[in-house]
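Agenda item 2: 2-aminohexanedioic acid complex prediction
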Amino acid sequence: MERQYLNLIGGKWGPAAGGATSPDRNPARRDEVVAVFPSAGKEDAIRAAEAAAEAFPGWARTPMPKRGEILLKAAALLEQRLDAVAEALTCEEGKTLAESKGEVARGVSLLRYYAGEALQPTGEVYGSASPSTFLFAERVPLRPVALITPWNFPVAIPTWKVAPALAFGNTVVLKPAELTPLTAWHLADVLDKAGLPPGVLNLVVGRGSQVGPALVESSHIKAVSFTGSNTVGSKLAAQCAERGIKFQLEMGGKNPVVVLGDADLDKAVEVTIAGAMLSTGQKCTATSRVIVQRDVLDGFRQRLAAKASSLKVGDGLKADTYMGPLVSADAEKTVLDYIEVGKHEGARLLTGGSKLQGSEYDQGYFVAPTVFDGVRPDMRIAQEEIFGPVVAVMEARDFDQAVALANDTRFGLSASVVTRDLGLALRFIREIDAGIVHVNSQTAGAEPQVPFGGFKGSSSGTREQGKAAREFFTQIKTVYLDPP
Ligand code: UN1
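Presented output:
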């Protein structure tokens, strides 16, 4: 019998009101139930927001170094169970064990980083126009916040929201994706065991369509940080604006790699494959377009197609797997539909383009690494986020046209250029409309200590991680202090 897990509300682990549950399935073998989770609804969300509000005054009074110590302890506990959490991640999300281990290690680093942030200055002192006034501006918490996180980085993204939210004195309701609750459960469990007081972090696993809106509508919730689709994000933004609360959205991407005429083509292929195919292309930072200067297009497309078709696809738990399954039946349908769209639009399929067949694949959502060639900027596969192992090769005459094509999208999360020419690399850095720019490395990746986020339709203009997290998770109180 698979284990039944519980939600954490007000320091107590318990089932959903009404007792509904939902199975957490393995996308590599759909009959395998990894765990059973509560299927919470509105009532649970409201209770969690109330618990976070009740816990707020105590947590805000807890000295910052003490908050940091709890995060450090949680980091140690997460590190101790790294292998188990990584395996849970692979079993519920599908990415390879190597990627899962990397992600849990990233979670550990994030907890440590924000433990350190809890010891950093919390404001600034100014010279006042009045000789007797002590004038300062202090960063204070927002109060209870709702964190709504996706299934594709179910350790890293919850951690990079929860850790700063807590370090800066907010209390939290975390609503992780329904597809990947087990990893979020581990995060809540290590924080609970590390000594967070009751109600400071509440975990509500349940139906997104009910829990999300109930949290955003709760008068206790003073800010929302969301990572996910543009469709959900823009609705959330409207609701938050209506309530006048702070919000932060990290959404889609259509990230380009630009391969210039002088590029090392092996490097260009390596960068493109890693960006497009790791995590089965299911990253908002994944590479989905590769814009290649005409002079090297023939050589590049041949090598790219050969490499893509040689990738080992399979169960992420197997040591030789490079690419696992898509996360769900819906995700698989979306990707296969986009492949049909690409074919109808007249793009040329170089490799892949279908579900994989054979006993290893029958039970899971396995789609072959897919490369389209001859993609024009007006095609849907050049404009819409596919979120799968599909990359579109586009031709550019020269540097200027390559950058124009790269910028011809409503998104602007990350971008990469492959070149040996430092002058062109610098021009690319200046001219590309993207929040994250890589030179000679893949479009994905996010180190904890630097800001993360996109331009244009990829984000709400806010940034996560690094010092930027403080901007979002605090508000400023300016104080004029005069002697009595
Ligand atoms: C990464 O590229 O390692 O949802 C992180 C996403 C992004 C995180 C990407 N918010 O894919």
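Discussion summary: Residues 150, 152-153, 157, 227, 250, 283-285, 444-446 surround 2-aminohexanedioic acid (CB under 6 Å).
Owner for follow-up: CH.
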